[in-house]
Amino acid sequence: MNHHEVAAALAQALGRPVRYTSVPAEDFVALLVARGFAPEYGQFLAEALIDVATGHRRIPVADTVERVTGRRPYSVVDFARHHAAELAAG
Question: What is the C-alpha to C-alpha distance for residues 61 and 86, in angstroms, rounded to an integer?
Fold first, then answer.
């Protein structure tokens, strides 16, 4: 799923509009730093997310959730429905 598809799935599950808005990497890093993360980590994560978004890095699908928790992983819609109250409080 791309970012827009995730936003659409969240909107469906929550019953309200959700949209994805791209932000410059510098703004993303500044937001993470403001929340207590190290600047180096913010830069690493921003670069990794850009690589994923542009197709230069793939995130493999694994069975980790099922092995660790004993249940199948949630879809994005199921996750949003399960955590709707927390997501709405935002």
Answer: 26
Q: Rounded CA gap, 10 and 88, in Å?
A: 11
- pLDDT surpassing 90 at residue 75: no
- Give the confidence band of 14 by pLDDT, cuts at 50, 70, 90: confident
13-17-20 Cα angle (round to 5): 95
Question: 3-89: CATH homologous superfamily?
Answer: UDP-galactose 4-epimerase, domain 1 (3.90.25.10)
To the question of pTM greater than 0.85 for the whole model, the response is: no
- Cα–Cα distance for residue pair 71/54, rounded to 1 Å: 31
